[in-house]
Design brief:
It contains 4 helices and 2 strands, in the order H-H-H-E-E-H. The protein is mainly α and 103 residues long. It folds into 2 domains: 42 residues; 42 residues. It is rod-shaped and about 95 Å long. The N and C termini lie far apart (89 Å).
């Protein structure tokens, strides 16, 4: 059985009924659609509406807040890894350096 396609207008009207105070179960029953379908539409609209505004990167680019914060987190991880590798390189350079006789 193929899932039924609903028009954008139908979806908007159904979401409006929920936002006007209708319970998802009642609205779904009234419209003859699965409760999970209506719940998904409402959830999708709410996630778009409550998304943080785009962030200006300073280079003229706009990125969404989640991407920006994920990039900052990854940069911090890479900086930490770089510090660890630098300390390891210094350690091994000292350990492998030939001993020089005292003057």
């Amino acid at each position: 059985m193929m899932p039924q396609r609903y028009s954008d207008e139908f979806k908007r009207d159904a979401i409006a009924l929920v936002r006007e105070g209708g319970r998802i179960q009642d609205v779904a029953n009234q419209l003859g659609i699965p409760r999970g379908t209506l719940w998904g539409w409402v959830r999708k609209v709410e996630s778009v509406e409550f998304r943080a505004p785009p962030i200006d990167t300073g280079a003229g680019d706009l990125v969404d807040a989640d991407t920006y914060h994920a990039a900052l987190h990854r940069i911090a991880e890479l900086e930490e890894e770089s510090d660890i590798l630098l300390h390891a390189a210094v350690y091994f350079a000292r350990a492998l350096a030939p001993s020089t006789p005292p003057h």
